[in-house]
Sequence to fold (137 residues):
Amino acid sequence: MGKRKDELERLKREAPEKLTLGQRIRLLRGERTQAEFSKLLDKSQDILSMYEVDKVLPSIDVLSVIADMSNVTLDWLVHGRSDKSHKSGAVVFKGYIIKPKTLEWQILEMLTGLRSNKVRQKAAELVGSFINIARKK
Fold:
């Protein structure tokens, strides 16, 4: 089971077009519970669960609502591909939408701009240390 979860995480990052529609819906749900997300869709939690495991195909109206509230294109939601995954140029990362010009975006830009793996590793450790300190407070 752990190997399958690792593979799903890799596909989310590297190849969203290889995910199923249900997996992309689950990705966009992020940290929200099925109950919270289904309420936003005006659908039952059971039907959302069936969407996420690809047992039921959502209507175009539901897909449109999911795409709009997640700020992604319908093409990305349905097919996992698009010139821009998000209307605003944002990206989905681990279920979170990261928009340009936010602090999160700036941090990712800085880290990806580092050429040395060793320096990237040290920067990640430093950020991790700050996060651990903040969590303890």
